[in-house]
User: What shape does this take?
Amino acid sequence: MKNRRFLSLSIVWSILMLTVLVCASVTAFAAEQKTSGTEASSEASYVEASTQTLSEAEQAQRIAEELHQSAEKEEPAVTAFLKTMESDHAYLEGLEYRLKTVPSLSRKILLLANKYGETPEEAKSRIDDALRYTLIIEEPYYTAGVKETLDSIISKGYTLTEFDNYWANDERAYQGINSSLTCPGGMVFELQFHTPISYETKGEKTHVYYEIIRDENASEEEKEQARQKHDALFALIPVPEGIRDLSYDLEKQKTVDVKSAETESS
Assistant: This one.
């Protein structure tokens, strides 16, 4: 009888101990799973955040590649069209550089984003030279040539979105006209107007100084010396007659002679 009671007590005790061990194991497993789940959640959040905060350099690279692809697609038609603007006194120059490279586009996107406090995606809309051209017009025909060329381009369904006449800007040494035009299909391209001398000056004669001016590693003294030499060369360029009075009404898509407009208003 005693043996049976002892045996029963032993069995009960064993069951109790087994129950305690099982409960402890379940609790430990649950705690481990909770910790693992938290770590996994944290890791997932980090990965998600890393994806969302793709570096600006990577964003700029992606946007630059997209712009370059669009420019490549539209380039043949735009080039062929602009060649019809050539004449005995006007010709396209530097066509080998008509497509801006992806690294140059990416660098410009980052510079614009930093300058205007924007994201690379927002700065994308400021890029107008993924496709760019230069029309050289001989000095005696320059002013009339710019007007006639733009009028002709606009008559074919293109829209002038920017017109910067640096001949009339006394705060800038650079001489020339930079314009932006939008194709009927939406592609934006840059068209610069130069005389033979202003084109040569902005290229071969001053490029070395331009690179020093924008070199982050150059000292302020070096930059100032380069700037003076750069500006002095541009100051030697003959200014085409009447060009300082040429402006453009972007709303009316019409060239404006500033002097004539001032005379009429007075």
